[in-house]
Amino acid sequence: MQKKAKATLRTASAKGTHREIGIRIGEQCRDIARRMDRRLRNEARGLIGRSPSEDIARARKVLPATRRFAPGYVEELEGYAEGAGLSFDRIFVMMCVLDWEAKGCTDIAVSERWTKDDCVYAAHNEDVEPCNLDDIVMARIDPDDEPGYIGMSYGGIMPTVAINAAGISITGNALEPNDLRPGIPKMIVVREIMRAEGLHDALKLSMPRGRGHSFNNIVCDSNGEIYSMEGSATTFDAIYAEEGYLVHTNHYLSPRMWKFEADMHSRFSSIMRYNRAKKLFRQEVGEVDVSTFMRVLSDHVGYPESICRHPDPKLSESEQTMTIFSSVFDLTNKAIWVCPGNPCTGTYERHDL
Ligand SMILES: [Zn+2]
């Protein structure tokens, strides 16, 4: 309850070369980077039973493939380490350890066909462990050689949802595929999609060969093209919003991907949120505006594992999940509505790219 009351939106911004961007964001988010590093170190040791040196050895193995796929972003991470006063190894380990996070989120995307104001929207609740609440930063990044973007980012440098100046948005959901392997971390991919100048590039960047894991990457553009890129480590299916909208949570929807679901018996919250969000959203199809998402994303049916998720007091802290922010992207006007903390108690504010 205390966490809800103090949820505020932290911001950071940087422009220049990738390295300069990293340094500037690292300086602005030094406290968060250090806190995340301490926590993930302990989590890796406690939950996975790995020492910091084992983590570094594992991360270094996937670095060459990551650098080939995302050379500019790796430079940003190198700059970030410098700005935050941490080693690059620790920052890159953080990126790799985040692959283990598979809590849950709820997403809706809709084309202009069904909206009252002819806008294209992508909406997202970010559901993770409650301890991540203070790690989120709204970052405005403007690289010299790529489209600028605005993202909701862990530590200001690892975006989880974002929109760029070319009218591309990335939102999405954690999945638990059973074909994990050492490879490009899934968080890298989110940032790389923001390099895209158009839809083709965005789809291609959402599923790099040699990845070790994957989110369900929801890629939309301002023409109202909406794709749910349901990935595992080794394959994917591209679900197109045939009807002009789609809903996604944390289980595979494509029959082609069902065999990659690691444990369907752990997906009851996901199944419930998916059906509930679809039902509520359908009631407003044709009349959709930004308030539609605010209503659906605040829903409490199935509480506490509802669309607006709250920590279940019956679970341990590391097993709990909560909505740490709620967001709605307006792709037509290149704006984001953000509510820090649970949307049932907070307020959404608009920010333009
Ligand atoms: Zn709530």
Protein topology:
Layout lengths: L1 H4 L4 E7 L1 H11 L1 H19 L3 H18 L1 H14 L3 H10 L6 E7 L10 E8 L7 E8 L5 E6 L3 E7 L3 E6 L12 H8 L5 H8 L9 E6 L4 E6 L4 E5 L4 E4 L19 H15 L7 H8 L24 E9 L4 E6 L8 E4 L1
Parallel strand pairs: 1-4
Antiparallel strand pairs: 2-3, 2-11, 3-12, 4-5, 5-6, 6-7, 7-8, 8-9, 9-10, 12-13, 13-14
Bound molecules: zinc ion (ZN).
Secondary-structure class: alpha+beta
**Outline:** globular
Q: Strand order within the widest sheet?
A: 1-4-5-6-7-8-9-10
Distance between the termini: 32 Å
The total tally of domains equals 1
Output the helix-strand order.
HEHHHHHEEEEEEHHEEEEHHEEE
Strand content: 25-35%
Helix coverage percent = 25-40%
Question: What is the mean pLDDT?
Answer: 94
Which architecture name does CATH use?
A: 4-Layer Sandwich
Compute the number of strand runs: 14
Largest sheet: 8 strands, mixed
Task: Please report the number of helical segments.
Answer: 10
> Low-confidence spans: pLDDT under 50, at least 5 residues?
none
CATH superfamily caption? Penicillin V Acylase, Chain A
